[in-house]
């Protein structure tokens, strides 16, 4: 028998024990619980991120705006991400009527779907128990609860990436090379559409998926390489069709691609949303050029809002720690314990393949998030949550099965103590909030770790009680923060998990909430809103930057032009284009002092030129406390 025969026999032999009768009801209970967590009080955060909400609303008003992800139904400029997430929200609004709930409903359902797909993925390599543990961990990860109730693109991104992992596992588990190739084609398709959700971030999981196929698929090397090649081709096609559509569509007949320097989706992908994110220097004027983007450096809230300082400890730091790192130490221990003893083994089983897949996902994505110099927000960590959850589920299930071994019991105890101690540290960062939780988690983890290391193989009738106690202790911290996230309102271009100090970062007046520093919006003005509703031009008004424009669009349903995109720094429209719009009667008013574009002295490029021309040419009036220029009333 050759080494290739050993590999084939080892991988295709189904050594999983049959599922216990309780696993199916437990799975449905998991989905119901996740649904309640993500759907309860959905819409309490209002429009959440008004930048994406305005684009979703525009997509319900105009099909071209839906296709391109325009910020306005007049199609002046897009949001600075590809439109896949806006497609889903826009269709939901068209089906159910546009509202906060209709906009956020797809995010919650995608969260439940991600939990379900993760269960099936982990179950195929490590059994139903591992899948259930992974599903519970993902469902209760604070940043997952946050993003599955929010309208940033991350919910769709996570679902598509987990689907890609599922297709890869099916490819590894295939009985024929043809089926392996088919499943890898589906993997590439999922990653391609993930690219159309959040661009290059979708590719961070590719090394882990490719490694698992190369090492564990039960076929010859050339067949494995061929399957990977087919996956790459379908990935390019499933993302490239839209890039080609945008490139071939006449530029004067579609909105400007926000965040790009040359009205190109490819430049946006590989520039502002690509290399510049990793290397820094996004530029873009005050604030950086996208929703919540801005200067990362400095102390205090804004540094937290932009991920803190790059380095190996960033994922555990004050900015990112509470999002997804609760069980990260346990996941890393489980990965090492699972791989090291069999590293030189010829036999490549499903469990080891799963560890390689999820370990590659975690290590590559975690390294990029840790060391990238450009814009990075705490909620990005939702992309780590499925890998952490899967590794914990696989490791715990395997170690429990080998609990007769002292080494397995010690490893289980180490994972539990690491989780308890780290949860204590994270909870202690908000010491005034339910201090009993952190002490209960710490003390309980130590006591249970001692019990597991000594008597895990002799628990007898106490097994169920110990399992429940271990789950409560291990998941107590993240569950508490997840429940807090679900029960609290979150608004603004970015948001963070867990309780925040009043007036501090993420709370009232913090960067994640209303009135965030450097992110002012307009106060309610019935007079201004009535004026905009009465305008029947292509754009009721124009203003510098999108922050107050987005809010007014949502309140009035009118099409408003955000000159220069989110921060006012994009070169669109030019002064000549804007003057032509005014001459043609396509834009009625100009709203000054919009806040997000910065004061006139800080503006540059077309935004500064347009502002100066309007102030020189048209009459200014006060409407509900806002400075408004009527572009049909020139100075005499």
UniProtKB/TrEMBL annotation:
Keywords: Cell membrane, Glycosyltransferase, Membrane, Transferase, Transmembrane, Transmembrane helix
Residue stretches making up the Putative mannosyltransferase YkcA/B-like C-terminal domain: 534-616
One GO term describing the cellular component: plasma membrane
Main location: membrane
Top-rank taxon: Bacteria
Transmembrane parts of this sequence: 26-43, 101-122, 129-149, 155-173, 180-196, 202-220, 227-249, 324-343, 355-372, 378-399, 406-427, 433-452, 464-484
Record localization: Cell membrane
Membrane-topology descriptor: Multi-pass membrane protein
A Gene Ontology molecular function term of the record: pentosyltransferase activity
Disordered: region residues: 492-526
GO terms, biological process: lipopolysaccharide biosynthetic process; response to iron(III) ion
Comp. bias (Gly residues): 501-518
Glycosyltransferase RgtA/B/C/D-like domain residues: 80-237
Protein name in the entry: Phospholipid carrier-dependent glycosyltransferase
């Amino acid at each position: 028998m050759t080494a290739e025969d050993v590999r084939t026999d080892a991988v295709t032999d189904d050594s999983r024990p049959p599922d216990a009768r309780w696993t199916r009801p437990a799975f449905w209970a998991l989905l119901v619980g996740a649904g309640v967590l993500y759907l309860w009080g959905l819409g309490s955060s209002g429009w959440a991120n008004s930048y994406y909400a305005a684009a979703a609303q525009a997509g319900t008003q105009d099909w071209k705006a839906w296709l391109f992800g325009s910020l306005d139904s007049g199609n002046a400029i897009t949001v600075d991400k590809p439109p896949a997430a806006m497609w889903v929200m826009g269709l939901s609004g068209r089906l159910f009527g546009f509202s906060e709930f209709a906009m956020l409903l797809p995010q919650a359902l995608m969260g439940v779907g991600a939990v379900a797909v993760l269960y099936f993925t982990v179950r195929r390599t490590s059994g139903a128990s591992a899948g259930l543990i992974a599903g519970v961990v993902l469902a209760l990860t604070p940043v997952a609860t946050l993003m599955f109730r929010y309208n940033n693109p991350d919910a769709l991104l996570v679902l598509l990436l987990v689907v890609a992992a599922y297709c890869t596992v099916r490819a590894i588990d295939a009985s024929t090379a043809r089926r392996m190739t088919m499943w890898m084609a589906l993997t590439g398709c999922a990653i391609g559409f993930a690219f159309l959700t959040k661009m290059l971030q979708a590719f961070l999981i590719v090394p882990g998926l490719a490694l698992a196929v190369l090492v564990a698929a039960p076929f010859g090397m050339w067949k494995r390489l061929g399957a990977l090649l087919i996956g790459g081709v379908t990935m390019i096609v499933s993302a490239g069709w839209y890039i080609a559509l945008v490139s071939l569509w006449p530029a004067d007949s579609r909105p400007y691609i926000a965040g790009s320097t040359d009205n190109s989706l490819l430049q946006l992908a590989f520039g502002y949303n690509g290399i510049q994110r990793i290397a820094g220097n996004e530029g873009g004027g005050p604030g950086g050029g996208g929703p919540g983007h801005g200067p990362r450096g400095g102390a205090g809230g804004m540094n937290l809002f932009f991920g803190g300082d790059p380095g190996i400890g960033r994922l555990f730091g004050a900015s990112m720690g509470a999002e997804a790192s609760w069980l990260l130490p346990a996941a890393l221990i489980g990965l090492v314990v699972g791989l090291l003893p069999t590293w030189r083994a010829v036999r490549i089983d499903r469990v080891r393949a799963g560890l390689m897949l999820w370990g590659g996902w975690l290590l590559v994505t975690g390294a990029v998030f840790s060391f990238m110099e450009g814009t990075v927000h705490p909620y990005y960590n939702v992309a780590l949550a499925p890998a952490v959850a899967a590794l914990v589920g696989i490791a715990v299930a395997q170690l429990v099965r080998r609990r007769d071994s002292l080494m397995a019991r010690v490893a289980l105890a180490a994972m539990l103590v690491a989780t308890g101690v780290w949860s204590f540290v994270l909870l202690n960062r908000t010491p005034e909030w339910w201090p009993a939780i952190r002490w209960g988690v710490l003390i309980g983890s130590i006591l249970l770790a001692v019990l597991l290391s000594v008597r895990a193989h002799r628990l007898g009738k106490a097994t169920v009680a110990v399992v429940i106690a271990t789950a409560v202790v291990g998941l107590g911290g993240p569950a508490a923060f997840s429940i807090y996230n679900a029960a609290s309102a979150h608004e603004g271009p970015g948001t963070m998990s867990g309780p925040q100090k009043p007036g501090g970062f993420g709370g009232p007046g913090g960067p994640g909430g209303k009135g965030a520093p450097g992110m002012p919006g307009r106060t309610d003005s019935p007079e201004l809103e009535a004026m905009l509703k009465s305008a029947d031009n292509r754009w009721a008004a124009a203003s510098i930057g999108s922050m107050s424009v987005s809010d007014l669009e949502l309140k009035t349903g009118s099409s408003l032009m955000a000159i220069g995109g989110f921060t006012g720094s994009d070169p669109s429209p030019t002064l000549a284009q804007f003057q032509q719009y005014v001459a043609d009667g396509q834009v009625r008013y100009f709203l000054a002092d919009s806040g997000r574009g910065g004061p006139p002295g800080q503006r540059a490029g077309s935004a500064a030129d347009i502002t100066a021309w309007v102030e020189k040419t048209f009459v200014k009036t006060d409407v509900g406390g806002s400075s408004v220029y009527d572009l049909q009333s020139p100075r005499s």
